[in-house]
Amino acid sequence: MEQVLITPQKTVSEYLQQQSNKSLLRFITCGSVDDGKSTLIGRLLYDSKLLFDDQLATLERESKRRSSGGEDIDFSLLVDGLEAEREQGITIDVAYRFFTTDKRKFIVADTPGHEQYTRNMATGASSADLAVILVDARKGILQQTRRHSFIASLLGVQHVVLAINKIDLVDFSERRFAEILEDYKTFSSGFDFSTFQAIPISAKCGDNVTLPSENMHWYSGPTLLDHLEHVSVDMNRNAGPFRMPVQWVNRPNLDFRGFAGTVAGGTVRPGDEIVVAKSGKTSRIASIVSMDGDLPVAVAGDAVTLTLVDEIDASRGDMFASPQHRPEVADQFAAHLIWMEEQAMHPGRSYLLKIGRKTVTATVTEIKHKVDVNTFQNLAAKNLELNEIAFCSFSLSEPVAFDPYEANKQTGSFILIDRFTNQTVGAGMIWFALRRSSNIHWQALDVDKQARSMQKQQKPVVLWFTGLSGSGKSTVANLVEKRLCEMDKHTMLLDGDNVRHGLNRDLGFTDSDRVENIRRVAEVSKLFVEAGLITLVSFISPFKSERKMAREILEAGEFVEIFVNTSIEECRKRDPKGLYAKADRGELKNFTGVDAMYERPESAEVVLYGDEGRPEALADQVFNYLEQKGYL
Amino acid sequence: MNFRTDHLYRLEAESIDILREVAAEFNNPVMLYSIGKDSSVMLHLARKAFYPAPPPFPLLHVDTTWKFREMIEFRDRMAKEAGMELITHTNPNGLKDNVNPFDHGSSLYTHVMKTEALKQALDMHGFDAAFGGARRDEEKSRAKERIFSFRTKTHGWDPKNQRPELWSIFNTRVKSGESIRVFPLSNWTELDIWQYILSESISMVPLYFAKERPVVTRDGQLILVDDERLPLNDGEIPEKRMVRFRTLGCYPLTSAFESSAATLEDIVEEMLIARTSERAGRLIDHDEAASMEKKKKEGYF
To answer: Within 10 A of B167 (CB to CB), how many other CB atoms are there?
Structure first.
């Protein structure tokens, strides 16, 4: 049902030439139920002579059958497509219509007036350049008028037309028109629309829809169609910094690696530098690949495949951006949320959040306030019901890249999905990152482990001393560190004394606390290795699986397990801190070797027999190993 | 000359975005291929979306066995050119009972050989997403369908409970057995399709171009006599007329019309002065007022 106005004399090429100059306007019609939205769209199509013969015949036939408008043609029948709608005489879902005039192409979303379908109005508004808000001249401004104006403003619709309809039913009264306009302006003063135009119309009779009204000489403004054809659509969509969420990594063979996605902001050319927002890795565009040959440039809205000069790591969900103007990367932000589900939203409940090409889990940590759509006042709220709008804080399972919605609709919007029903339950518009995580741009680690260890002229490694309490671990580890230090090596020693009192002071000696204790120590030693240090760890570390975990988070050759194998009898005899005695008296629970297990290492790199050698001799043994294996 | 308009670029980009999103998010997508002009555009867009790789999903053709012969030849050639696997399926029950449009009427025939056959094929292969070439401008109930249109385990569509679709963020989540029908051409109009075919030089089934063909006239519609399977009524004698098709369904169900448009340019020109809407040439839609919505609830594309 594409409709065009064309004279038969025109040739195809002339026509197409003309088409290429046309812009596209996406608009929505909204307002309360029975304000005549569907009738208005039907009227626009009819008056513009945009209907085909068979559609007209069907329309006249169905109008007669239902006779909802007497003998006249019922234009709403053109638009209300679903059975239930025709039966109830109302619109329940968004319908998309397409029409073309000599000046423009239009996609119009007809959105429902009933409150329970407000979510559909938001759907229509999310992609609209302009909103036609209908008001019944007899009823004036209603709650839906306010709600829809607010949603239009919230979703960043740029242009608004206030169509005061059924003006014929108030005797084409200029005063009534002025009253309603005044009311509208009073409540909408806070909204930031680029243009605003009020037009008195009668969709049913045709006044000021496509033709100027004979009945309202007091009105000298444009007709609705005239305004739709001439309102300036923002041609600035290429402005703003480059953004492209990676949608699909195209890798048909080993020689080609393309990153496919739709440019969400700015422009990009071969040679441009880009950054992967989250990792901070940078590269340059090698080419913009297409089936029609490489392209010289791509702009916002283009679906492209980019190849890069460097082999950098990026996958679906990452965002390519201009390195000079990076997006935010954060796991917390504040956003407006429109709730679209019967079941209320509760802070703390976990939802899926899809932003760009990335899906993460998220919770609303706090409803800062909800908005009363009648007064636009901020109200406190514990939860959010269907169709309510609130300003909330979000916390995400991992950081994502985004821009404020105001700066970029594509990279600043998200939806919430229920994890169990899979329904789309909310729509969000990000305002700003919250402080904890804002503006920590992950720097590509150009100074890496290798650079740091070269600077220190050493090979970083973890020397992991394990053994019973009193076995001599710390004594040997101290001796080893002292000698390394004398050799100008850079070292760090982790033991119970410096870790248990600080980092791990929240942990006790139950099995699960011991596991966590060792996990933290392992992670810290990994960081020290990345810093280029020779790291000595002296912990009982009784469980095989944690020692294995520590080994596995490090690279091969970075973990040397040193088992200080001293018999329990010898340890008891030494008992330097009196702990065995305490444990034997039952004053100390979970003491390794007494009432807690020690799992002996089976394949330690170095085994020191503590019963026999002096500490210095044991340290020599460690040094021999390090020299043999090329660590020193 | 360059026929390509800014408007077409935007439509193309939107469709490519949808095609990629499905490939990335679903385990087992498939593209319904009906051989017509919309399918041809959709296939072309898929090739562009994944270039230089071939599209990462197969084509599925539900073969009612009542397709025009030229369509089948064309189908096989296109799949090969695109480097895609072609799956064809015919409802075996319908074949056994010889369900055909003449003895069983268009309504039952469409239900058995198209709707049921499609559901069988989707179930058999466990597809969790299926691309269709439908456009919102075709028909009133289509105008309200989402781009990502959720289907239950029994392939039902619930028009009152559609997922809201905001910006270009698509909710692709389905549970096992559920699926989503995806319509990458939702926002294209018939004119856009032809303009695009023209500017991209997309291959088309010759039936779209005017040629002398044998036809008979029934209820004011011209029916092509494609082979001996069309039973001629008493006194009916096929006559040769310059005709072409505006849409291609099953051959007794799609009527031809008189035309001299033999090139793509001619076709577009004819479109521009058209005064009859597209589906007028499809006999199934005339069956009842809300016929398309009813078929869709039952699982028709």
So the answer is: 19
Q: Which residue, A62, A99, A98, is CA-closest to A83?
A: A62
pLDDT tens digits for range B89-136: 999 988 888 888 777 877 888 888 888 999 999 999 999 999 999 998
Name chain A contacts of B277, Cβ cutoff 8 Å. 1, 52, 54-55
- Enzyme catalytic residues of A: 541
List the beta bridge partners of residue A104. A23
Q: Can you tell me which residue has the tokens 């003491």?
A: A591
- Give exposure, A27-48, as e/b (b: 16+ Cβ within 10 Å): bbbbbbbbbbbbbbbbbbbbbb
Can you list the residues of chain A whose pLDDT is less than 70?
A: 1-21, 33, 48-55, 65-72, 77-93, 112-117, 234-238, 435-446
What is the CB neighbour count within 10 angstroms for residue B289?
Answer: 16
- Is B261 an 8 Å CB contact of chain A? no
Residues in chain A with CB shorter than 8 Å from the CB of B257 are none
Q: Do B7 and A248 touch (CB under 8 A)?
A: no
pLDDT digits (tens, 9 = 90+) for B160-190: 678 889 999 999 999 888 999 999 999 998 8
Contact A496, A487 (CB under 8 A): no
Q: Helices A12-20 and B264-272 meet at what angle, rounded to 10?
A: 70
Among A292, A424, A430, pick the best mutation site for testing chain B contact (most B Cβ within 10 A). A424
Phi, psi (degrees; rounded to nearest 5) at B29: -85, 160
The residue among A62, A26, A423, A408 whose CA lies nearest residue A244 is A408
- Which among A82, A98, A122 has the least Cβ separation from residue B141? A82
Write the ipTM.
0.86
Considering only CB atoms, B164 lies closest to which of A12, A123, A352, namely A123
CA B65 to chain centre: 16
Tokens of B10: 């935007």
Q: How far apart are CA B173 and CA A359, in angstroms?
A: 11
How far, in Å, CA of A449 to CA of B189, rounded?
57
Chunked into runs of 10 residues, chain B (301 residues) has average pLDDT values of 68 96 96 92 97 96 84 92 95 86 79 89 94 86 84 82 88 92 93 87 90 87 79 84 84 81 84 59 47 60 59
- pLDDT for the residue numbered B47: 97
Model pLDDT, residue B295: 60
Tens of pLDDT along A173-194? 999 999 999 999 998 888 888 8
What distances in angstroms separate CA A403 from CA A158, A192, A240, A398, A400, one per listed residue? 19, 19, 11, 16, 10
Interface touch A12/B265, C-beta < 8 Å: yes
Tell me the nearest-neighbour CA distance from B16 into chain A, angstroms.
6
Select the residue of B47, B169, B276 nearest A52 (Cβ to Cβ). B276
User: CA–CA separation, A326 vs A278, rounded Å?
Assistant: 10
Residue A21 has what pLDDT? 65
CA within 13 Å, CB half, A256: 16
B-chain CB neighbours of A305 within 8 Å are: 51
A451's enclosing H/E stretch is helix A449-456
| pTM for the full predicted model | 0.73
d(CA A113, CA B215): 49
> Is-contact A452 A531, C-beta < 8 A?
yes
Contacts of B13 in chain A (CB under 8 A): 262, 301-303
Contact A204, A69 (CB under 8 A): yes
Q: Does A95 touch chain B (CB under 8 A)?
A: yes
Adjacent-strand bridge partners of A565: A609
Count of pairs with CB atoms under 8 A, one residue in A, one in B:
194
Using CB atoms and an 8 Å cut-off, which of residues 17-36 of chain B contact chain A? 17, 20-21, 23-24
